[in-house]
Structures are given as structure tokens and as C-alpha cells.
Amino acid sequence: MTQLRVGMIGTGFMGKAHALAWRNAATLFPLPLQPVALLLAEQDAALAATRAAELGFVRSTGNWRELVADPEVDVVDICTPNDMHYPMAMAAIAHGKHVYCEKPLGLNVAQSREMAAAAASAGVRTMVGFNYAKNPIAALARQMIQQGEIGRLLHFRGTHTEDYLADPNRSGGWRILRERAGMGALGDLCHIVSLALLLAGDIEELCADLQVVIPTRPAGPVGREAPTQVENEDQAHALVRFASGAIGTLECSRVAWGRKNGLTWEINGSEGSLVFDQECQNELHYFAASDPPARQGFRRILLGPEHPDYAAFCPAPGHGLGFNEQKVIEVRDFVEAIAQRRAAWPDFDVGRDIDAVLAAMEVSSRERRWVKLEPGADRPANGDGA
Amino acid sequence: MTQLRVGMIGTGFMGKAHALAWRNAATLFPLPLQPVALLLAEQDAALAATRAAELGFVRSTGNWRELVADPEVDVVDICTPNDMHYPMAMAAIAHGKHVYCEKPLGLNVAQSREMAAAAASAGVRTMVGFNYAKNPIAALARQMIQQGEIGRLLHFRGTHTEDYLADPNRSGGWRILRERAGMGALGDLCHIVSLALLLAGDIEELCADLQVVIPTRPAGPVGREAPTQVENEDQAHALVRFASGAIGTLECSRVAWGRKNGLTWEINGSEGSLVFDQECQNELHYFAASDPPARQGFRRILLGPEHPDYAAFCPAPGHGLGFNEQKVIEVRDFVEAIAQRRAAWPDFDVGRDIDAVLAAMEVSSRERRWVKLEPGADRPANGDGA
Amino acid sequence: MTQLRVGMIGTGFMGKAHALAWRNAATLFPLPLQPVALLLAEQDAALAATRAAELGFVRSTGNWRELVADPEVDVVDICTPNDMHYPMAMAAIAHGKHVYCEKPLGLNVAQSREMAAAAASAGVRTMVGFNYAKNPIAALARQMIQQGEIGRLLHFRGTHTEDYLADPNRSGGWRILRERAGMGALGDLCHIVSLALLLAGDIEELCADLQVVIPTRPAGPVGREAPTQVENEDQAHALVRFASGAIGTLECSRVAWGRKNGLTWEINGSEGSLVFDQECQNELHYFAASDPPARQGFRRILLGPEHPDYAAFCPAPGHGLGFNEQKVIEVRDFVEAIAQRRAAWPDFDVGRDIDAVLAAMEVSSRERRWVKLEPGADRPANGDGA
Amino acid sequence: MTQLRVGMIGTGFMGKAHALAWRNAATLFPLPLQPVALLLAEQDAALAATRAAELGFVRSTGNWRELVADPEVDVVDICTPNDMHYPMAMAAIAHGKHVYCEKPLGLNVAQSREMAAAAASAGVRTMVGFNYAKNPIAALARQMIQQGEIGRLLHFRGTHTEDYLADPNRSGGWRILRERAGMGALGDLCHIVSLALLLAGDIEELCADLQVVIPTRPAGPVGREAPTQVENEDQAHALVRFASGAIGTLECSRVAWGRKNGLTWEINGSEGSLVFDQECQNELHYFAASDPPARQGFRRILLGPEHPDYAAFCPAPGHGLGFNEQKVIEVRDFVEAIAQRRAAWPDFDVGRDIDAVLAAMEVSSRERRWVKLEPGADRPANGDGA
């Protein structure tokens, strides 16, 4: 089988998850190409070598520019802080590599547009790491919606709330700096936008309210001595209108005590409802209006082999997938898209559209008004590559 | 003990609940006045007499104007459809009666302002039936907030969603008609606004999005032959900014399949969080940031005799109060306010403020913009009468 | 309408709940007889008079023997500690009164047999206060089982666990004394046996394990100076075999920290399952094997007007009944049985059968062996009076 | 680093999970030995070769006897149906290999005793695949118990219920045959016994009730033409007494509709309680009696980096581990035990003790009596190798 040689940059939280996914994908799914963990880049050669040994990469480098230029590398996989997504992806595209980039795509939508345009020009395949959209529950929900099981969509409520910066004595590191992170809670937790688009379709208009709650934080690993000023939002709320006519609300917070992975959504349709909470990531709650009145109730559907993708991991229902396994499905989707020479979902066009939603939220909040979104001219229909 | 003689109008859903509350309050709580179910009004004398026998009223009448004028009546209790709140309350106030009125106060905020002003001029005591604010959980949460147990408030998410009009083949009766009901989902489910005010304080500014989802419905009990046009919103979303600096979202829906009493709220503060769902009405979920890191988690606090008001109903914890028992606490609060010659909470001033929030939502949605709310000049601090 | 004149003895936890139920039953349900709270007995005349005023009884007495002999009393309602059930009920029966007695029926099964036999001889109607069997969920579950919705019953797991004596520094009062309480956790929490019989039918054989966990407790309100020895079990477990062929387990505990009303049951049948937890007393969880494989899951059915008895309390679904409302249904059932001259469920025969199960548990535990139960010769089929 | 060369037999449900665990363990944890997936055995050479390619093994064989004798193999990993555990493990031990065997250890306790004795004689390290004991929640709970956080243990309720054979039209395959599977539901779901031992300690005495619910099933993949007689239990209940003085109940079922992985346990102690449900495998519910009375409630602790083993998989809390990740921890434990020349937990001695519990249940059920268990003479204290 033809190999797909991966060059990965960065070995933090996401880097480790990606490395495991590249390694295991071909065992768990029948892939059209055989991924090979070829080259790993880190900040210096020694660290890169150590990590390469741990993560099972063949070679390593302390210079990511070498990696993106390496003729043996087919795919560049970017797992670095947000500010490096743009230069790395642009360089990789310039070398004709397929690019797998962690979210959010760019530091801002202008970068994301350039990145999407460059990828399109170069004809390379791209994927953005919106891993929660790869939870089989999301595929199941999308399937149910498309088959009309909950009828016409009326309402979408989405949240992604966590508490990793709820403690005011905790340094925000690079995440609170505009030039390093771009947006704040919205940048970290924009996963909920990917799910809104996947499940409820394009957003046409929105009105948002962003807020910094803790204005300064202790200087942290970024090496500043004085308290650091927080430059991006701690929490964000939005009203949204979808192209379908449904309306909804979105919320992100990094200061919501007690929420560890509060990615939740509820969709009400004319024939039923679907409810999800990532903290119970193997359950979909489904209300069918067609059940007999005295026997109606939300059904707690536990993932099992009858549902999308689950059987690859386990033949027995209810045995539970974890966060890391979402990344394997993401890799599978990207490898298939590359082999089949079609757009993956979510590719850079979708990543750009998500960033456009975030940018519109920022404008809306600053100008205290509703903002319309331009429909993406060249993007694929949501999820059609999935 | 001095008696408090009650004249009640209407015997539907709320009328029955009120009648039970009036009857049982003095057994469950030590009241300063002894309520007497004296006079009941219904649409005609025969129905009134039948219901009076069932509900234990001493006398009855087919003419509510007689009731509000009856010299033996101390309190007029209005349990009719929304359009009758204004004329009945105004007449009762004109006769110097204390008035207990179901929510929403008026058909619109103009009526509500008149009602509040009239009550103030007449020096009568008033109460609006926001019974969910009387759930002991609400009192417990308010106590915890006021004692600083979750620190400074950052975020309030409130929903009140139900599915009583999710079926497009169901007639909306008077509820979908502007002249009979005033607002739609917001009118029915404005309870969530009462809880927002009680727990998070005054709302200063909001931006809302209201929507009719099902434009026509079968003619129903109101006797129209052709399909009825739906004149008020099926679902409503809003961004809100509180005077305290906290921000939040509010949602109401009468078309959310599967939600039977989806009155929920989550409050994030700088030291912890509180979460509630009326469908599990005896539980408060509390996250304390001060718990040791490896032992943190939302605590599911079940109501018991250590909490406000519960012991009156049951000496054993976790035995569960029901919807109707909230009304008993409401009656207790009103009777105490009357005896102590002070404002109850929520009185007509608060009812007017809630209607002002609803009215602002309507303006905001129609004009697609943020709307500021004028602070109520003469209203008591939230819940101080509670 | 003919009156049913009630004489009630005792005004503690249960007395108050009974008083409210007698008062409200005829408003909530169309009753064939009109209950009248006629006579109340307490330990002395003064206390009786005070409580009668609070609870709305017409007359009072400090001597329960007067009450059971009072010619105007039709029903004697016994809400006293366990040791008084037998003498009071026997006296009431001797005077030809119908008897409503709190659980457990006697201090031991010998007493219960006498009580049941006496009632049968006298031809009076009886009821034992197993109020959780009156939760509409129980009626719904029974209906579903009888209609075959979960097929043949295979397994019943029942628990009733609480933590009211988990603190070793808490006095057990009369509850830990054999002569006052009879059994311990099983005596208090034998509700789960009533539900096992109602839902799964007669128990034929059992093997139990009873244990005192905290052997001595501080002397408490019973007035002993030295620490009191605990004379009955803190926790009890049993294996059971039902006449139907189903098997199961039962557990009771009064030392289970965190459980406030841990009355739970799960029933697995050949076509589905039912699951219940009294701490969420308005929900039945129902799994239907006939649902499509990829859409299966426990349905959370919230009580509503489509279900038994709920509509009497509230026309809107999901609004939640409380513990006290179960007692109203119990009273309704008893009044109907009296009027219709038939056995109520659970009457003294059933109360005796439940006590026979408890007694068999005690023998089984003491003798470390399985014990067979004799089928009750003259008892009605389970729940047929319901 | 020294290699640890693995020879694995079988590639079904467990084989795949083991292969992934061997592959990923050294990336996720700092291991003292480097596992190498060296040799794979399947039923014939062709299948073995195919699977070896998929699962990443270096070599393959159609003959497991070659594998256990292969001088390059250090560890034999047995992932076959139950009847092959004994001959394969005995052969591997005879060749001086360390052995990792899926549960249950033997087809019966006699086999298990032989296997444990042989391993002890040969001085090889062993591990039995009770993977749910490797969920970090189990380690957290054990830690809390050992630190006295819930005080003295009083009660353990354990269940492992599933519905994989609830459908009577489903063939049971080899699982229902005594000679192939040994026991039935207890054989498959004896995981709950491993957790009882780990968390509550040795079982001293028990009384059990086993039952076949569906006596015959369609002939399935085992190739019998007539309906197959079910030879082992569909459901099993037991009362247990622990050496610590705690008492408890255990239940296993393969016919419990709706339960997909109903491995649950509740432990009540003198200072608190712990509750777990594998279907929500990342949550531990903890009640602390020391919390202030009005703020008590079960805390829902979500796994995070403060808890055992989690951080290896993910630095962010609440992101969720899956079933397969439990196997990685199991492999880590085994590799460490081998390197450190000490017993792993649960090794063959523990596997034998678990089988002794199962065997005692069978005797108890057949003879309808309590059965005492002999304490294992040479086994390590529970979990001390963990």
C-alpha cells in the first residue's frame, strides 16, 4: 500500500494525540494509504530527538522549515500554538504539502482566508482539528437530522465552557495574548461553532457579547515580570440565525467553574430533539415526538456498533470511546480525502468560515450590533466530505 | 387570629393550585393572619357554585365585579387568562383590596406600569405568581450568592422551554392571540426572568431574537373557524447584561420537543457555580472552587430540613416537594407581607419590571438592536421582601 | 354526600402528612365519601388541642382510647410509633372502625397476623401506609408490566437506603429498640418490599443477611442515661425468588451516607426494562427492546396527565409531584375501597404479608439459610384493589 | 532500553485491544522495558499473517504451540475463548514465559489453581485482564478508601449487567457451553468481583442464586443444527461477607435489557460513600459526611490530571478516557511488575481467587446454602502490586 509520510510539528497536548492517531488509524480503520510517522519537529534538535523516540517518528529536526521543505514528507501536521499556524501552513502549502492544522486555523480571519486560498491554489488537501465533530455522536446526530428524524430544525443551543482560567491566580500563558493566541475563549473553544455548522448549517447573522472578566493575571511561562494584561475574551455569548431559518445561541467560557469540557448542544426540531454533553461523550439523548404520548421521553442512546465508526474501536456497545479516539477518526477522514482527491471536512475553507464567525462575533460585540455573514463561495456543503 | 379573607377569580390550572395553597398555608407555616377561602368567582353562577364546593370556598358568584367590590374580601386573587389581569386588578385596587395576580402581570408593560402605580397609590399589597422563585432551591441559591459562596457573579444562563405547542396540529387557544395573551412563549415562560432578577439582579441592557415558528394553527376552543394566525412568538432568545457586570443568555420556547418544564439556570461566579433544572426540582448542583483539586465536582444537594422552607413540608431530607407546594410558599410570603405592611417579592413593581424586560425584548427583536432598560425608581431591592 | 369521619392518632411526620391528605383528597379527586377531620388524639389533651387547631380537626382528645371508641368516628388513622400500631388497631377494629395504619403493620408478624385476622372477622376496611406504592410511577410501571410491555419478568433489584442513622453520634431514639420499633432498617424502609410485591408479585423464598453496624449510640430522647444498645439491624440484604420465576435482590440501610431517599428499583423483563429512583420521583426510565437497534436507549418518561393520577394534581406534564401528594392518592384509594366495600391495596393482609417477608429475613439471617414463605391464604391478588 | 517481546494469541475483541495497548503503552507511560509486538498466532497461518499486518506484529504463525515455545518471545498474551486459557498458559509457563491472560483465568477453579501454582513454581510473572480495575477511577477510589476518606467500609453493592444475550433469538455461540466457556454471565462479567476484591477486600462467605432464563437458543456459529441448550447461568445474584466486616451484594446478568456495560458499584463507609457506573466511566460520585450539613451532596468528580494515570493520556481534565485506554494501563502495570520482579495485580493468584469466588457461587446456588471461602495462602494483599 502507498505510504502517506507525515511530518508533525509540536508535541504538546495535541501533538501527542495526533501522534497516537497517526499510529493507530490504519489498525482501526481500513485506510487507502498507510500513514508513516516520518519526521518530527520541535523547538530544538535535542527535544525533537527525544520526542521522536517517544512518539515513534523515524527522524527529527529542530527546524520546522526543514520539515515543511522535506521532499519525503507528504503531509504537514501542525500542533503548535495558534500564532504559528499561519506561517507553517503557508510554508507547507508552498512546498505542495497536504496540511493538517490544529484549530483555530489562523490568528484571525484574514490569515485564515489566505491559508484557505493558498491551499485551493496549490491543490493540496487540508484538515482542521475540530476533533469533537469527529465524535461518532456528531455523525449519528447529523445522520438523524439528514434523514428527517427530528424534522425541520428550529433551535440550536451550543455551549463550550471550561474552567481552566477561572482561577485569577493562574497565568494564562500565551493564551491571553492577542499576538500569540488571537481570540480567547472563542479561539480555544470554537469547537462549538464547528458543531453548529455541521449539525445546523450555515450561520447567516449573529449578535455577540464578549467580555474580559479577569483583566490581569500573574506573569506566567511567557516570561513577563509584571502582571500580564488579558487581551482577549474570557466569555462570549451570541445569538445566531442559521440559513435554514433556525435560530440559536452560542456560549464559550474559560471561567466557568466546574465545567471541564462543557461542550453541549441541544437541537429542537419539528419532530423531535437531540441533546448532547461532551462530559458524557458516549451518549445522545433523543426525543421522538412520534412515540406514544404516555411513553415519550428522552432516550439515552449509548454509542455502539450500530452507530457510525464505533465498531472500529470496539464490538460491544456502551464500552466507551475517549477523547483521543476522536483524533483517530479525524485522521481517517483526512487520509481518505487525500486518497480520494476530494475535500475533507472540515478543511481550510470550513476553518476559514468558522474563523469568519468568530471575527463577526468580535465585530458585533465591539460595535454592539447584529452582523451578517457572507456565505463562503467555494466551500463544500457542510460535512459532505465527512 | 385575624382572618385574611380571600376572593379568588378563576379555577383553571392556577386556580386549583391557589385554592390548595390558601387552604394549606396556615397548617404548614405559622402565619400571622388566618386565610379564609371566602368567595369564588367564575364565568357564571352555576359553575362558580360547583367549583366553590369543590375548592372549599364559602360563597360564590358569577360576576367578578361583585367579588372585587365585596366588603368582606381582603385579598383578590386573580387566576384568569392574561387579558383579564389588568381590569380585575385595577378594579380590586380601586376597592382597596390587596391583589395576588398570576403572571404575567399585564398584557403589556403599559398596563403593568398602571397596575403597579395604582397599587402604590392605593397602598395595597401585591404579589405576582412567579411560583418557581418560591422553590426552596431558589431561596437556597440566593442565600449562597448573598453569602459570597460563589463569589462575584460572572454569567447567568437561563432557559424556560416546554413543548406544549410543539405539535403544529394543536390549537393554541387564547395563548397565541395578542389581544388575549399579550406575548407568547415569553408571556408563558417569563418565570426565567423572575429567577434572573432574583439571583443575578437587575438587567441593564439586552438584545433579543423572537420568532414565530408555526405561523398558523387549527382553530381551537376560541371558536374561530379558519386556521388561526399565531400572533406571538414561539421561541425567544436574548443576550443580557446585568447591573452587576455579569452577562448572560435567556431562552424561552413553547416548541422544544421533550422539554416539559425546562426551567433551568446556571450561574458561574468567581468562586463557584450553581446549576438547576426544574425537572429535577429538589436538587441544586453546587461546585465549590475551594474544594481540594482532586476532590472537586458538582455536589448534588438534595433539599432537606437544613434548607429554607423545606422542613415545613417534611422533616426528612430528600423526600421531594412538588410544584403545588411552591404556591404554598408564595401564599405564605404574601400573607406575611400583608401582616407586616411591607412589600412582598415579587410584587407588582417587580412584575412590572419583568414585563419591562419582556417589552424590551420585543423592541430589540423588532428593531434588531440592543435596548437599554431604565432602572425602576421605586421598586424594592430584589427579593428583599422574600 | 355521605361523610367519612376521621379520627387520627399522632401528629409527627406522618400525622401531618395524613392530615393534609385527608383535607385535600376530595378537592383533588372525585371521592364517593366526603372525609371530615373530626377527632385528633395526642399524648395529652393540651397538645391534642393545639395540633387539632393547626391541622384543622374539629375535636381533640388526650386519650386515644376515647378516639377509637368514639361513635362518630368512622375511620381510625394511626400515625404513632410502631409499638402502638397493634393495640390501637385492635381496639379500633373491636369498635368496628375502618383502620388506616402507618407501616410497618405490627411490631412483628405475629401481631400483624392478629391484626389482619381481626379486621377480616370484623369486616372493616384497612389500609397500610406504604405511600411510595402510591407514586403514580408505581401505577404506571404496574400498568406497563401487566400489559406485557416489558414481557416476562426476570429480575427485580430493590433498594431503600437512607443515612438518617449513619452518624454514630446520633441517637436512634425509639427506632433502635426492639420493643418500640420491632425491626430496624427493615422496619423503616420496608417500602421496597411493598413495591416488590406490587410490581413483581409474591415472594416465595429468600435468603437474607442483617447486620448491626453501630452497636451502641448516645442515649437520646428515650431518656436512658448510658449509651443505648442498638437492638435491630442497620443494614439488610436479601436474595429473593418470586412466585413468577423472577429472581432478585433487596437492600435496606439506614447508614448509607448520601442516600436521602434511596428507594430504587430496576426490573428487567424479556422485552424491556424499567428503572426508578425515588430521589427523582417523577421519572420512570423505560427501555423497549422493540425500538430500532440504533435508536434504543432508556427513555426518561416524566410524569404527566397521560399517566395515572397525575392530572388530578396538575394539567401540565413534568411539573412534579412531591412526597406529600402520594399520601393523597393513598387516602383516595382507601376512601374508594370503603365506599365500594372491597379490599384496599395494601390492606392489613398485604401489610401482614410484608411483615412475613421481614420476619423471614430475620430468621434467614439468624439461621444462615434460605427460608420459604407460605402463600397468604386469604389475601387479594397484588394491587387488585388499587 | 531492554525489549519485552510479546507473542499474542487471538485477534478478536480482546486481541485488538491488547495489540493497541502494547503498541501505545511506552508512548503514554515511561516504561522500564520496551514492548515489541513480535509474534502473533491465529487459527491458521493465512489469517495470522493478515492480522499481523493489521496489528503491526513482526511475525505470525498458525500454530500457537510454536508461539509459546518461541525462544524470542518473553511474554505470551492469551486473548482466546475461555477454554484455551488453561492449555495455552500452562504451555507458556512450561516454556518460562511471562503470561498475560484474559479473564476468567481457567474454565473452572481447579484449572485456575493449577495455573497459579505452575506460574509460582516457574517464577514467571502473570497478569489477568480485569481491565475495569485499571480505570483510573478504581485507583482513585482505592486511594480514597486507603486514606480513610470514607472511613470504615460498611457496604458494597456491585453489578455487572449487560443485554448481549437478552434476545432469545440470538445464538450464544461458545459462551453458553460449559465446555467452552465455563460459567455464563459470571464468567463474562466477573469483572465486578475483581472490583469488589480491589476496593472492599477479601470475601469470606457468600450465598448465591444462579439462574438460566432462556433454556435454549438458536444454533449459532458453533455449528450445531438443533437449538442449543444453554448450559450456564444467564443471571446471578449473591450476598457476600467481606473479611473486613462489610457486607454486600453482587449481581451479574447477560439478559438485562438496556444495560450495555452496567458495571456499577456503591460503597458506603462510616464517613462517606463512593458511587460508580462504567457507562459514565470518567466520573466518581463522592459523598463526604464532613461537608457542612446544608451543603452536602454527592460530588461528581470528573477524571483529570490530578487523579491517577489520567495525565498520561491528556493534560486537560474531563476530556474522557475510553475502554481501550484501560488496557494500556493494564499493560503498563504488567510491564512494571516484570521489570521489578514482583507480582502484578491482578496476577494468576488473584485470578484464581476470583475464580474461587465464582466457584463458590455455583456451589452455593446448587446447594442452596452459604459457602465459606478459604483465604488464599500465597496471594499478595489486594492491589499491592498495582
TrEMBL record, chains A, B, C, D:
<feature type="domain" description="GFO/IDH/MocA-like oxidoreductase">
    <location>
        <begin position="140"/>
        <end position="275"/>
    </location>
</feature>
<dbReference type="InterPro" id="IPR036291">
    <property type="entry name" value="NAD(P)-bd_dom_sf"/>
</dbReference>
<dbReference type="Pfam" id="PF22725">
    <property type="entry name" value="GFO_IDH_MocA_C3"/>
</dbReference>
<dbReference type="GO" id="GO:0016491">
    <property type="term" value="F:oxidoreductase activity"/>
</dbReference>
<dbReference type="InterPro" id="IPR000683">
    <property type="entry name" value="Gfo/Idh/MocA-like_OxRdtase_N"/>
</dbReference>
<feature type="domain" description="Gfo/Idh/MocA-like oxidoreductase N-terminal">
    <location>
        <begin position="4"/>
        <end position="130"/>
    </location>
</feature>
<dbReference type="InterPro" id="IPR055170">
    <property type="entry name" value="GFO_IDH_MocA-like_dom"/>
</dbReference>
<dbReference type="InterPro" id="IPR050463">
    <property type="entry name" value="Gfo/Idh/MocA_oxidrdct_glycsds"/>
</dbReference>
<dbReference type="Pfam" id="PF01408">
    <property type="entry name" value="GFO_IDH_MocA"/>
</dbReference>
<dbReference type="GO" id="GO:0000166">
    <property type="term" value="F:nucleotide binding"/>
</dbReference>
<protein>
    <submittedName>
        <fullName>Gfo/Idh/MocA family oxidoreductase</fullName>
    </submittedName>
</protein>
<keyword id="KW-0560">Oxidoreductase</keyword>
